[in-house]
C-alpha cells in the first residue's frame, strides 16, 4: 500500500482510537483482512476483560492495548495491497477499506437475524413491539422470553408485553436525558434485572445513548443470576451489587432510579434513594402494600374501614398517593398512571417523577396533614429522614 493511502488510514485510525476510548464498554471486536494478490490474511482483536485486547494475527495471539493494536495493523498494512478493517460495537459497525487508490469508511447497523419461523411467531403477538423479536433475539433468549429455537414462549407473552410497554412509556423521558454524556441508571431491588437488560439494549443499540447500569438487590442469588445473564450477553456497561441500597456508594452522578415490583417498603427505599441522590428521573411500579395497612386509622371512615378488603384497598391508594406528595415536596413533577391493563397484573400503577429542583410547599403541607390525620409515619418519610439526619434506629420514631 502506498504512503498516501497509509497516511489516510492513519487519520481514520485516530478516529477509531478516540471512539474506542468513549465507547469501550460497548466494543465488540475489531476484524482485519489483508489482501496480497489472491491471498487473504485475517486478524481479530477481542476484549478480554483485563483492560487489553486479545489480538490474533498470523497464528499468534498477543495481549495489547487498543492503541498498539491499531499501530500493529498500520505496520502490517504497509506490506499488503488492500485492507478491510471492521470495528464492531453493540448496534453498529464501522467498515474501513484501504487500497492504493483510496481509503473510505461506511457504517452499518448490526442486527441479529433469526429464522422465518420465529418471524412468523412474532406476528401473532398483538402489538407493534419496541423491542422487536427479529432484532433482539439474543436478549430475549437470555431473559427467557424467547426459546432457543427463536420462538416467543406462550407463557412469556404477558411478561414480554409488560416490559415492552414499560420501555414505551419511558422512551420520551430517556430522550430528554440525551444531553448527558453518560446516563447512569440504578435498578433498586433489581431481582434478575430483566428490565435493566431490556433498557440497556434499547438505549445502547436503538437510541445510541451512552449508559451505565447498576443493579442492587439484597439477595446474593438473584445478583448471581443477573451477572450470569450479563456475561451471556456481553453487556460490560453494567455492574451488580448484593447489598442494601442504603449502604450503596458511588462517585457517579445518578440520573435515573428504577424500581419494578419491589415488595412493600422496598419501593419506599428506592424512592428515598432517588430523592437523596437528586436523580433526574425516578420511576417505580410498586408491588404489595402492607406497611400502612398495619398502622393507619381514620375515625370518620371507621364504618368503611371495618371491612378488611376496603381497608386494604384504601391503604394501597393512600400509600401511593403519599409517595406522590412526598416526591412533589422534594422538587419532583409527579404522574401516577396505569402502565398496563389490570387484566395483565393488578400491580399495574407506575409512579413517574421528573426532577424540577423546586420544592412544593403546598404538597408538603398536604402530606403533613394527611400523615397526622392517619396517625402514621410512612416508610418513604422514614427512609428520607435517614438520609437527611442519619441512623434513626436509636430514636423512638420507627414506623
Automatic annotation (TrEMBL):
One of its GO terms (molecular function) is methyltransferase activity. It holds the Pfam family Methyltransf_32. One of its GO terms (cellular component) is cytoplasm. InterPro entries: Methyltranfer_dom, SAM-dependent_MTases_sf. GO terms for biological process: methylation. Gene3D superfamilies: Vaccinia Virus protein VP39 (3.40.50.150). Keywords: Methyltransferase, Transferase. Residues 158-293 form the Methyltransferase domain. Coiled coil: none annotated. Signal peptide: none annotated. This is SAM-dependent methyltransferase. It comes from Proteiniclasticum sediminis.
